């Protein structure tokens, strides 16, 4: 790394609790669920519900889930994001490569302030959400706009069909299947979103479809060998369909006894992949007589780091053009 690089790449992920405890989960969810990009309800309705019902009830319940996936060095989302940034840094020693979280630590504002103090002038911001959504990517853009004063900030909004990223995901599926065998069906499971937001124009579902189609094409999969679903529903309103649990139930009812599940909406493994898919959905499918095999996220794989570094380089080249 040069003494003081003037270019930085900032990888931003969602954020995660500092500990698998009810207190830490309440603090994290409290910040997350106050974001107007995530929950649009008027505050006088939402705040009482959040502070007196959701956080007290959800804190201990979700802490128990985190406890089951917690790693020695911390929450999987934090550990893998940190490692991914280190691998990208090793590929691009001429930049400063750092990471931040939209909610919790390290905060975007603190990291940008540190970069400014180090003499960085240009920052490529890469939210680790391959598929653009107003609830995630735009929320990162809001936080960066607020804290990035004086810096030349360039956002990467979406890489849902970026060829190097698509190839990295396809290769990881190929390698996983070579090691563990090929299930009869491949399910692409993405984090969900309220249907209302898609109806209002959030392009997220189309971006998920584009990713799944591109990865299936790279794998040469026939149309009946794969499907797409949404998971991680929160709250009572209608979310994007079909739900992962329902798709798996249908597959089991049709006699499909082995399914591989991959989650290309998640850059790194986290609660939603390790607990919800690899544990809960796998147990549900097993009750119906099937075997669900979970294919891990790209995490800190070199192919992932290379794809992200190339995206950032292209974003910088666009600035020079
Ligand atoms: C209205 C609520 C939510 C929206 C909208 C939403 C969108 C959304 N989220 C991700 C990625 C992740 N979400 C994660 C956890 C998580 N998500 C919500 C709610 C909404 N997400 C909650 C309440 C939680 C916490 C867990 C729980 O209480 O059930 C995570 C994992 C975090 C971790 O620590 O491991 C990720 C990643 C995307 C991509 C997205 C919209 C497209
Ligand atoms: Fe509040
Ligand atoms: Fe979420």
Automatic annotation (TrEMBL):
Catalytic activity from the UniProt record: heme b + 2 H(+) = protoporphyrin IX + Fe(2+); Fe-coproporphyrin III + 2 H(+) = coproporphyrin III + Fe(2+)
Pathway membership: Porphyrin-containing compound metabolism; protoheme biosynthesis; protoheme from protoporphyrin-IX: step 1/1
Enzyme nomenclature, EC number: 4.98.1.1
Compartmental location: Cytoplasm
Cited SUPFAM superfamilies: Chelatase (SSF53800)
GO terms under cellular component: cytoplasm
GO BP term, example: heme biosynthetic process
Function in brief: Catalyzes the ferrous insertion into protoporphyrin IX.
Family: Belongs to the ferrochelatase family.
Protein name, per record: Ferrochelatase
Originating species: Luteimonas cucumeris
């Amino acid at each position: 790394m040069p003494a003081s690089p003037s270019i930085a790449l900032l990888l931003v992920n969602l954020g995660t609790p500092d500990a698998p405890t009810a207190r830490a989960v309440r603090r994290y969810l409290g910040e997350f669920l106050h974001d107007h990009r995530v929950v649009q309800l008027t505050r006088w309705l939402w705040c009482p519900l959040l502070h007196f019902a959701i956080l007290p009830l959800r804190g201990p319940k979700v802490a128990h889930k985190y406890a089951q996936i917690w790693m020695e060095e911390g929450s999987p989302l934090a550990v893998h994001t940190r490692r991914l940034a280190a691998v990208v840094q090793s590929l691009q020693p001429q930049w400063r490569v750092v990471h931040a979280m939209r909610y919790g630590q390290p905060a975007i504002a603190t990291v940008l302030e540190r970069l400014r103090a180090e003499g960085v002038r240009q920052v490529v911001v890469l939210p680790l959400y391959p598929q653009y959504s107003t609830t995630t990517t735009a929320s990162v853009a809001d936080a960066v706009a607020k804290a990035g004063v004086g810096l030349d900030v360039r956002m990467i909004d979406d890489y849902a069909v970026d060829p190097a990223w698509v190839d990295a995901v396809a290769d990881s599926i190929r390698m996983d299947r070579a090691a563990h065998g090929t299930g009869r069906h491949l399910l692409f499971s993405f984090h969900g979103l309220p249907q209302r937001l898609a109806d209002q124009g959030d392009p997220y579902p189309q971006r998920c479809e584009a990713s799944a189609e591109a990865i299936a094409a790279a794998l040469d999969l026939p149309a009946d060998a794969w499907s797409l679903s949404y998971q991680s529903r929160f709250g009572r309103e209608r979310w994007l369909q079909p739900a992962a649990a329902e798709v798996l139930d249908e597959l089991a009812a049709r006699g499909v006894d082995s399914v591989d599940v991959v989650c290309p909406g998640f850059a790194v493994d986290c609660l939603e992949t390790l607990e919800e898919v690899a544990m809960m959905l796998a147990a549900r499918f097993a009750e119906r007589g099937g075997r669900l095999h979970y294919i891990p996220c790209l995490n800190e794989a070199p192919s992932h780091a290379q794809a992200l570094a190339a995206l950032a380089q292209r974003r910088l080249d666009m600035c020079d053009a």
